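Supplementary Methods S3. Input chains for the assembly prediction are listed below.
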Amino acid sequence: MLGRLNHVALAVPDLGRAVARYRDTLGARVSDPLALPEHGVTVVFVELENTRIELLEPLGENSPIAAFLARTPRGGMHHVCYEVSDIRAARDRLVAQGARVLGDGEPTIGAHGKPVLFLHPSDLFGTLTELEEV
Amino acid sequence: MLGRLNHVALAVPDLGRAVARYRDTLGARVSDPLALPEHGVTVVFVELENTRIELLEPLGENSPIAAFLARTPRGGMHHVCYEVSDIRAARDRLVAQGARVLGDGEPTIGAHGKPVLFLHPSDLFGTLTELEEV
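Predicted structure tokens for the full assembly:
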């Protein structure tokens, strides 16, 4: 069911400093910042050969990463995202096996314009896990 | 400087339960467990199309993930590993720009038999970051 690793998301308190670190110190290819007010984040993509890292900074008052950064102010690993070909089939299989989908259980449109859902981290050993239909 | 994402490592308290979840619920291809006593972990590889997830369970008395699981007993995202072509050149560039290498600063032989080093998570916004020479 799981396809490619679409991305790993890292929450950072200061995107400018993070960009400088990934671009200048680690020598990575880094995108321009992209504000996604409807998702409550500003994102920068660190483009690797086989996948990408998403650096997330809170945007606005109801950012979904605000609570995470309140707990871990220096930042940290926030979630992983796997690709699936049929997100509703994936959801049904997961729910049948006792995994919980966050929210009302219906896919929403994610930051890449594709259907996504998030699985409860307690059902995946503490790792917040996103599925994205591609 | 950064090449491919080699792996994402997730610490889990119970590898048997984690294998069942990733294989049976998420439908992923999962390796047999591999005990690495010299690294203090037992590892299972979740093979994705473009990279892999490493599920880590502590092994022995001085496991490098024991403290992490003591803080976060349900498990969680532990580190990311990027490939580099010349780990000493990477190290020198990092140190020159103020990033700290854990240990004595010299690469060690990692779980895949290749030279590795770890960067201090405080210098990468809370993300423990491994570099592996390939």
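The first helix of chain B runs from residue 15 to 25. Helices of chain B lie at 15-25, 66-71, 87-96.
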